[in-house]
Structures are given as C-alpha cells and as structure tokens.
Amino acid sequence: MTLTSDILEGLNPEQKEAVESIDGPLLIIAGPGSGKTRVITHRIAHLVRDYGVSPYRILSMTFTNKAAREMRDRLERLVGPRSESLTVGTFHSFCARFLRREGEPVGLSSSFSIYDADDQLSLIKRSLQMADLDPKQNPPQAIRSVISRAKSVMMDSRGLSQHGQSYFEEVSARVYHHYEELLSRNNAVDFDDLLMKSVQLLQEQLAVREKYQQRYQYLMVDEFQDTNVAQYRLAGL
C-alpha cells in the first residue's frame, strides 16, 4: 500500500521500513535522538489513514508526560480530529484510568487517591510506628526505595519477606505490610501500585483481560528497553 507523502516525509529508509511494518511484533533498536518516537507516531498515522484502523483500537504508552504530549501533538497534525480517539499516555496515566474503571476486583473504588512521594513517606513513618521500629535506624526514604523496587518486580510484602536478601529488606517487609494496610484503608495507591495492581487485575480477571485485548489491536511502547518487570508484563497482557 502506498503511504501518503506527509507520513513518509523526512523519514530515512530504515524508518520507512518500520512505519510500513504492520503485522506482528516489531522492535526498533536505535540510539538516543535517532527518531524512534517519530517512527511510532508515523506508524500510528499509517494505520489510521492508510489501513483504516480505528483510532479507538490503538494504544501507545510512553514513560514521560513530555513524550506523551509530543506524541499527541504530532498525531493531531498527522491524523487530525481522529487523534482524539487514540489512547496515548504514560504507563501510569493509562493504568490510573484503567483502575478507575475496573479496579473493584483489586479493592479499589473509582475515587481512589494517588499518593505522591510526600504522602508515601508520611505513611511509611506511620508504618514504622506500627511495626515498633525506630525511623532513625530505619530511614523512611530508604524503606520507600526498597518497597518501590519490590513493586516494580510484582512483589508484595509477603514476597519481600520471603525473598529479602538482607536484614534491611526483612525490616522493610515488615513496614511494607503495614504500608499496604494503610493504603487499602485509605482507598489509596502509590505510583508503583498503578502498574502492579493493573497487572494483577489483568492476570486474575479473564473477562477484563479479554475486553482490553479485543479493544486494543495495536500496542506501541516508546523506549521499550527501559520497561521494568511490571511494565513488561502489562505490555504482554
């Protein structure tokens, strides 16, 4: 199929080949600033304008709000008003919207709060008190980092307790347990939960998983090489 000229404009031969590769998985390997994000936007435009794919069927995820804004701006220029039906955003923004619609099976109402770094530290300090641990000997910021790393590999407090490789990780697991309880009590999540709970829900709820698999026929991930375990599993579901 012949691409419209403005979709091809400014692309080198390798980029054109990637844009025209429609069927099956495609991994683009290139250095920083080589135009990977541009290829994704032009590939989406190709699907919409030349293949007649409904924008509603396309999901594109990025790591930063800046990248998502740039992608949306480019797509608006390339496909016009139809770009409004595309799902383009960060992993976290997609998961937040997803959980507000579907989060009941993982214990979330649609009005859940998303805690920022300061909120998390406050909750960890309360969790330290509940675990009868001294925050001077167990710095809340360090515990927050341990919990975040655990969630990035889909590990809850029980998993961290079982697989912790140091005394500090064992202590952090005790705090993590209370931290989870407080988040649940407050109908709240942290940023790592957005990914972890989305993956858990999709793994456990077949009907929900099939619903989104049927909707999104095309998935694009910018900077895929930077995905952690939770993000990788989300993309694979």
Automatic annotation (TrEMBL):
Which keywords has UniProt assigned to this entry?
ATP-binding, DNA-binding, Helicase, Hydrolase, Nucleotide-binding
Q: Which InterPro entries match?
A: DExx_box_DNA_helicase_dom_sf, DNA_helicase_UvrD/REP, P-loop_NTPase, UvrD-like_ATP-bd
- Swiss-Prot/TrEMBL GO biological process terms: recombinational repair
State the Gene Ontology terms under molecular function.
3'-5' DNA helicase activity; ATP binding; DNA binding; hydrolase activity
UniProt keyword Lipid metabolism, yes or no = no
Q: Name one GO cellular component term.
A: cytosol
In this protein, which residues make up the domain named UvrD-like helicase ATP-binding? 9-237
Q: What is this protein called?
A: UvrD-like helicase ATP-binding domain-containing protein
User: Which source organism does the UniProt entry give?
Assistant: marine metagenome
